[in-house]
Write a structure and sequence with these properties.
Layout lengths: L13 H14 L6 E5 L3 H16 L8 E6 L4 H8 L9 E8 L7 H10 L7 E7 L7 H9 L1 E4 L5 H14 L3 E2 L1 H11 L3 H15 L4 E2 L1 H7 L4 H13 L3 H13 L4 H24 L5 H8 L3 H7 L8 H19 L5 H12 L7
Parallel strand pairs: 1-4, 1-5, 2-3, 3-4, 6-7
Helix pairs in contact: 4-5, 6-8, 7-9, 7-14, 10-11, 10-12, 12-13, 12-15, 12-16, 13-14, 15-16
Length: about 350
């Protein structure tokens, strides 16, 4: 039986409403002076970034009217100079800043300088910023919200995520069996960029066939990032330091940035804690009902189900707090991102002291 979509809550979804509004504004050519796309879903950030850039500059050679700044390899003065340049035989000039360190403690002054500039640039210049995480308390974030658009590209609800997957297959002329659909979610997780890649592989693999089966998914999908992160968390739960570091080194070998590893650890501990607290408040509730109530994807719930009965909310809360503190220490410049992750693993696998 082909999967038809999720038949859960059909209430209003704030993200989809905001996305439609943004799409309509771009299609109508009603552009703002500054856009910040932020959040864990790289797929949505990149999609909105590219859609906006294409609408502003077109498909031709954009090199004369486009400037890009990444990481820490620039100064805000260079950004300002590029933004002040008059467009060359075009209506607009686009400045893109992506994966910068302007949110860290060391670059706070530079971030505030950019915040003060946004809104004063020429009307012909549009500033786009794309970041996996931001600090909403900082002046830079507030400046984007005041003078343009601060658009969060975070996790979709389970219903909307499932609908998106089905629509992607339908756009390729394919249906997917229900059992294959659930297996695909378990393999690919909730990352839309990763899921998009897995869908493309599945479509290519089945060729002219119209339906994707469970056997197809098993043939083309490899264990993904979220699975390895969960393996590491399971090893941490057993206080198996060697096992946890083995998983961690596998992730490093796959060129997974330490900051991403820490962020995914934080997310998985947060999801498990929410489910654990929901289960404690509602005796007799199933793990999957708790997942639905807390907005945790079904594939993630399948992973958490064996672990949740044996771990307390207090342990999960403490682990989550350690991840949050490590992330803050990295962003404040106290540790490198790699040291923040490795120190967290060591702390979480330390032997329990007997009283």
């Amino acid at each position: 039986m082909a999967y038809q979509g999720f038949h859960g809550d059909k209430g209003k979804n704030d993200f989809l409403d905001r996305q439609k509004k943004l799409n309509d504004e771009i299609a109508a050519g009603r552009f703002r002076g500054a856009y910040l796309f932020y959040g864990a879903q790289d797929y949505l950030r990149f999609q909105n970034r590219d859609k906006l850039k294409k609408a502003l500059l077109g498909d031709g050679d954009v090199s004369m009217n486009f400037a890009e700044f990444r990481s820490d390899s620039f100064t805000v003065q260079q950004v300002v100079e590029a933004a002040e340049t008059v467009p060359f035989f075009a209506d607009r000039r686009v400045i893109l800043l992506e994966n910068t360190d302007l949110w860290t403690k060391d670059k706070k002054a530079e971030g505030e300088r950019l915040a003060a500039y946004i809104g004063t640039q020429p009307e012909t210049t549009v500033i786009i910023m794309s970041e996996p995480s931001v600090d909403k308390r900082q002046k830079l974030f507030l400046s984007f919200r005041k003078n343009g658009e601060a658009f969060e590209c975070g996790e979709l609800s389970d219903r909307d995520y499932r609908s998106w997957v089905v629509r992607r297959f339908a756009a390729e002329g394919k249906a997917i069996r229900e059992s294959a659909f659930e297996l695909l979610l378990a393999y690919a997780g909730s990352d839309m960029l990763n899921m998009s890649s897995e869908i493309a592989k599945a479509v290519s693999y089945v060729g002219d066939r119209k339906e994707v089966t469970e056997e197809d998914i098993r043939a083309i999908c490899s264990r993904q990032l979220q699975d390895r992160i969960f393996d590491m968390i399971a090893a941490i739960g057993r206080r198996d330091r060697d096992g946890a570091f083995s998983c961690y080194m596998d992730l490093v070998a796959l060129q997974t940035p330490p900051q991403v590893i820490l962020s995914l650890m934080e997310r998985q501990y947060g999801q498990m804690l929410k489910m654990k607290e929901t289960l404690q408040k509602t005796p007799g509730m199933s793990v999957y009902d708790a997942a639905a109530a807390d907005g945790v994807p079904y594939g993630a719930a399948r992973q958490y189900a064996p672990l949740l009965p044996s771990v307390s909310a207090a342990v999960l809360r403490a682990a989550l707090e350690r991840c949050v503190n490590a992330d803050a220490a990295y962003k404040n410049g106290k540790y490198t991102d790699r040291l923040a992750v490795e120190k967290t693993i060591v702390e979480l696998t330390a032997p329990v002291r007997k009283r």
